[in-house]
Structures are given as C-alpha cells and as structure tokens.
Amino acid sequence: MLSSRLNWHAPENHLSQLLAAKRKAGESILDLTESNPTRAGLFYPAQILEPLSDPRALLYQPEPRGSLQARSAVAAYYKHLGVEIPEDRILLTASTSEAYSYLFKLLANPGDEILSPCPSYPLFEFLAALSSVTMLQYPLRYDGVWHIDFAALEQSIGPRTRAIVCVNPNNPTGSYLKTAELSQLEEIAVRHSLALISDEVFCDYAFEPAPDRVMTLVGHRRALTFSMSGLSKIAGLPQLKLGWIVASGPGREQALEGLELIADTFLSVSTPVQLALPHFFAAGTQIREAIAARTEANLQTLRDTLHASQATVLNIEGGWYAIVRVPNTITEEEWTLRLLREQNVVVQPGYFFDFETEAFLVISLLTPPGIFVEGLRRLRTFL
To answer: What is the fold of 13-43+285-382?
Structure first.
C-alpha cells in the first residue's frame, strides 16, 4: 500500500547492533562520531533563545520567500564573506535537506538524474528518492589533495541529467572547490545545460587560508547556480531549523519564481526563527569560533597521536570530519567492529560515505576533547 519511494528497508548494520548491545549492557563508550554541536559539550549562552519569545511571532504573515528582515540578515552574512547580493535572490527553507527537496522538484521530472560527489554524505540518495529522481555519483580522487575526476563526471552525464551537486567543503573529505575546478565545472554545466547545486554549510570552517579556494558560489555565475546553507552549522543550532537557497547565474529569476511557488505550497519556515535570525547570526559568531577552536585542536591531536603509526591522516582543508587510512589487512567493517568490541571506541567506516576503496575510518573533530584523546589513544594501541 505504501509508495515505492519508501522502499529503503534494510537490516540494521552490525556496528549499530553491537553499539546498541554495549550501551544496553551499560558499558562506557568513547564515541568519536559525534557531529551534533548541541551534544558536544560546547558553551551556549543561556539567553541565546530569548528572541524566540518576540510577541510579533503571534501574528502570522506568510511570505513564501521568507520575511525581508530574515533575508536581509542572510544577505549581511554573505557581505561578511565579501559577496554583495540583493534580498530578492534569497529564499528561506526549514533546512538544507528541504532546500535539496525544493531544488530537485524545481529542476527534475520523475526519473531524471542528479549527479553528486563520491565520497560524500549518504543522505542524497534518500532525498532524491522522495522526489522521484535518480542520484548518480561522480568520483573525487585523492593524490595528497582531493579533486574532482572531471573525465568520470562527464561520462556520468546523460540525456536525463539535470544538475550537478557539489559540497563545498565536502563532507567528509573536507575539500573545497578550487578556482580552476569551478571554472571547469561551470564550463561543463553550460555545455550540457545543467544547473549547479552547491551545499556550503561547512564553508566557514576552513583550517588554513588558501588563495585558490572557492568559499561560496554565490555571485556572478556562468551557469544557473543554487547555493545553500543554514543555522545548523553556521551558528551550531540545528534544532532551530532554518536554511536558505541563493540563486545566481542566468535563468535565476524564473527559477526563483518556481521556488517561490513550491515554498508557497508548504510554508514551512517558522516565524519566530525568522524574527530572531539577526540575533542568531550575531550569537553564532561566538559558537562558530568555539567549534573552529575545537576542530582545529582535535585535528592537531589526531595528527600527533597517529604520527609514525600504521595509520595516515588524509589531508583536510575544512569541515568537522577527518579521514584516517588504516592498513587494508582487515575490512573496514572488521576495523570498526573490533575497535568497538575490544576498545569500546566508535568510529565510522568509509563505506558509510561510499568510499570506493578500503580501508578508511571517519572521525568527528567535534568530539569533546577528553573523549577524543582517550579514544585516539586506544586506536593507536589497537594499531
């Protein structure tokens, strides 16, 4: 009786089963996968949620693109990044996941195809299925730095391809687009009449400056381009559910009209959060700085702990994750199961993120320092 869009049922993986059993038994687990900033021991000002009680929120005045005040706050955020954009190119959503859903509906008919990077966050396939589109992958390659395999990307483009997703910086590789890559990506998009969708939720978390790094695709673009971000990462407030889409490039006016029609159908963005958005951007600066300090310190700890070991920390430019290459003497699943079984340490296997080869472990740099240090000590012991 249910839609085929929901045909995702799969048995719980062995790592989740073992983790649940250990927690049920009351064992103390060192979780090196924590990516929720509100559960990572960070300091949040006690008064941060006070603006949600603004009495103006009692009046419901739906605006499909979001209130002008809120969109002006988003525009001010991009001005801080060095990009001037008018408010009418911004459309608010409840999250970046919803933004993906809107864009898939805007750009693709049922059965059309969207290209996304590999490795990357495993949510895309589910979001695409709910919009009745097909997600195909193009590879990122690593040779000391991560880069797009453009030959493979072009081979993935077919008559039903409608858009290319890039995650900037990528999750979990932490790699940013470079100016030369963006130029080539735009050339391909123009030649094949494709849109670009840029997920930029981690763009504020670069570890070191780089002159050829692309921070955002917002601005003057040669192809129709949609940039997305939200409060979840920028302010470390995923529970407040506010994201946005910024349209750039040729055809953006017609695209925004279509997005407005979609948004008007759902009207999902909360009025209290829109009213409080300028405050959250201001408060988010302190939270963002705390997250950056945490991830930078943990990355250095990771490099120091695994130095001269059998493991290699791959080069990472930004974001909240690190990738560790371990000896391919056992499978990634065996690595993660044995670490949990013998050391009570949880890490994620690379295949969760569709790594094409083994063996890689993915570790969250957001992990509280005490847990991080001890977890890595046990990982080094296991190695």
So the answer is: Aspartate Aminotransferase, domain 1 (3.90.1150)
Helices 252-266, 96-107: axis angle to 10 degrees equals 120
For 355-364, what is each residue's pLDDT tens digit? 999 999 999 9
CA distance 316 to 175: 6
Instruction: Tell me the pTM.
Output: 0.96
Taking the C-alpha atoms of residue 79 and residue 283, their distance in angstroms, rounded to an integer, is: 17
Query: Can you list the positions of beta strands (E) in the chain?
Result: 30-31, 90-93, 113-118, 134-142, 146-148, 161-167, 195-199, 225-230, 243-248, 312-313, 321-325, 345-346, 348-349, 360-364
Q: Cβ(67)–Cβ(275) under 8 Å?
A: yes
Domain extent listing, the chain: 13-43+285-382, 60-282
How confident is residue 11, by pLDDT bands cut at 50, 70 and 90?
Answer: confident
4: pLDDT strictly greater than 90:
no
